[in-house]
């Protein structure tokens, strides 16, 4: 059982001992710290926070604890109920709220839950803000309100529909063009809120929907991370239904993966590539992804005469660099699309609507579209180290060893070779070095990974 406290929030497994898992006591403690942080940084007499949750079994319990903790601090709550991460991000500025909390452990299995924390823009808190909340939680310097000054709860379950409307009103989303194509799409909602909102979006775009695991009961029918090894059922159903493609989202609907019409994975890395290709063709500009994402986005960006830059891993870092470079679109290679025209957050709905519009204007199947992009293959590995090993020193030696190559040390060490790259980065929570590689064939990516695993072990003396 685990409890992970980080600058991006708190997540853990349900049950067990206080301080070691995400127990009711821990949920209240960190909700109190967040509410206290907001009060310390505002001159308002009354604050307002939007709260939504995914369909996890523990969701209602954690939801009630967090809502009533904020009420106890004198903060009003806009209760969105069953929702998605991007929906809450959209709601915060529309409600002119002072922050937001999404109760979800994203792609983690059902025994996990988490508090994801937003600022008044509906964006994730930065590192210094997250560190301050951890400090407040540790000190337990909470000051709750007297009875006449408790917060109020306003229930508003309309925001999934509002979110859909905001997406459909985007200039680059063409509902009429999509409807004319009469697409048929299979949706795997992993029995969470994506099983509600994605079919609704598709139906409003005139798409025939075949639902798979779209009952929001929190009983995930497979590992909820949208990777190939977990998605055999939808790959099979896309072929059986002769569908144009399949859509897979994670429990909080900020990651998006496609299944091509032939039942093969489109590739999470290529979700952003395809959507960016469309967006850049209409609105040329710059792009950003994290440095563990595919080089294909750089290729597509340069094809459209734009500039690509890579950030450190983490959505907050991607957003920060997108703002600094006025990027038109960005995201992460795990299927996270960030389209600032709507908001600065990963949003599967935006990705679906833009992809459908692009497909409606192409004379290609989804498999043919995928084949038209630069072909890169990735390998993702890790090395477990003993706590005594100095990971920073190991990475520093690797940097020195490859100093003649193009190197970035923004986040670990990324070494760019002419036709392939390797990214080595340490875990923030355990003695592990992650090794990501990309090359023009799978065997080349695997070989590159195997080579660097061996070199790292030699340097680390294991």
Automatic annotation (TrEMBL):
One GO MF term attached to the UniProt entry: phosphoglucosamine mutase activity
Which segments constitute the Alpha-D-phosphohexomutase alpha/beta/alpha domain? 8-142, 172-263, 270-376
The Swiss-Prot or TrEMBL record lists the needed cofactor(s) as: Mg(2+)
- Species this protein is from: Flavobacterium luminosum
Q: Which UniProt keywords apply?
A: Isomerase, Magnesium, Metal-binding, Phosphoprotein
Q: Which family does it belong to?
A: Belongs to the phosphohexose mutase family.
Q: Which Pfam families match?
A: PGM_PMM_I, PGM_PMM_II, PGM_PMM_III, PGM_PMM_IV
InterPro entries registered for this protein in UniProt: A-D-PHexomutase_a/b/a-I, A-D-PHexomutase_a/b/a-I/II/III, A-D-PHexomutase_a/b/a-II, A-D-PHexomutase_a/b/a-III, A-D-PHexomutase_C, A-D-PHexomutase_C_sf, A-D-PHexomutase_CS, Alpha-D-phosphohexomutase_SF
PROSITE patterns the UniProt entry points to: PGM_PMM
State the top-level EC class.
isomerase
| Keyword Magnesium carried by entry | yes
- This protein is called Phosphoglucosamine mutase
Record domain Alpha-D-phosphohexomutase C-terminal: where: 392-453
Question: What EC number is given for this enzyme?
Answer: 5.4.2.10
Please tell me whether the keyword Metal-binding is annotated for this protein.
yes
């Amino acid at each position: 059982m685990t409890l992970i406290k980080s600058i991006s929030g708190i997540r853990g497994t349900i049950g067990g001992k206080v301080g070691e898992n995400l127990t009711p006591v821990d949920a209240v403690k960190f909700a109190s710290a967040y509410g206290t942080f907001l009060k310390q940084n505002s001159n308002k007499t009354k604050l307002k926070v939007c709260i939504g949750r995914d369909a996890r079994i523990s969701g209602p319990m954690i939801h009630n604890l967090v809502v009533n903790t904020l009420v106890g601090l004198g903060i009003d709550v806009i209760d969105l109920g069953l929702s998605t991460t991007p929906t809450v991000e959209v709601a915060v500025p529309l409600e002119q709220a002072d922050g937001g909390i999404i109760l979800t452990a994203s792609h983690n299995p059902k025994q996990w839950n988490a508090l994801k924390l937003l600022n008044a823009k509906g964006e994730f808190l930065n590192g210094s803000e997250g560190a301050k909340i951890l400090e407040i939680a540790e000190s337990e310097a909470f000051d709750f309100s007297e009875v006449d000054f408790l917060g109020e709860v306003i229930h508003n379950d309309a925001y999934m529909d509002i979110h859909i409307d905001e997406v459909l009103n985007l200039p680059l989303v063409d509902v009429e063009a999509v409807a004319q194509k009469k697409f048929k799409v299979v949706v795997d909602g992993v029995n969470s809120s994506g099983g509600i909102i994605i079919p609704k979006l598709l139906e409003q775009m005139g798409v025939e929907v075949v639902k798979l695991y779209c009952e929001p009961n929190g009983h995930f029918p497979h590992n909820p991370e949208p990777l190939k090894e977990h998605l055999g059922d939808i790959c099979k159903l896309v072929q059986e239904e002769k569908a144009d493609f399949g859509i897979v989202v994670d429990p909080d609907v900020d990651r998006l993966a496609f299944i091509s019409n032939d039942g093969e994975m489109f590739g999470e890395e290529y979700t952003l590539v395809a959507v960016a290709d469309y967006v850049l063709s209409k609105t040329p500009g710059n792009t950003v992804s994290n440095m563990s994402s595919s080089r294909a986005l750089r290729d597509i960006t340069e094809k459209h005469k734009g500039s690509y830059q890579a950030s450190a891993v983490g959505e907050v870092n991607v957003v920060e660099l997108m703002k600094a470079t006025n990027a038109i679109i960005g995201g992460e290679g795990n299927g996270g699309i960030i389209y600032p025209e709507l908001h600065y957050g990963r949003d599967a709905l935006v990705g679906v609507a833009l992809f459908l519009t692009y497909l409606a204007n192409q004379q290609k199947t989804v498999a043919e579209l995928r084949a038209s992009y630069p072909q890169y293959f990735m390998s993702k590995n890790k090395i477990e180290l003993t706590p005594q090993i100095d990971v920073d020193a190991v990475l520093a030696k690797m940097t020195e060893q490859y100093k003649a190559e193009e190197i970035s040390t923004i986040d670990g060490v990324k070494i760019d070779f002419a036709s392939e790259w390797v990214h080595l980065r340490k875990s923030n929570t355990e003695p592990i070095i992650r090794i990501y590689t990309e090359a023009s064939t799978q065997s080349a990516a695997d070989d590159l990974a195997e080579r660097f695993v061996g070199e790292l072990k030699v340097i680390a003396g294991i």
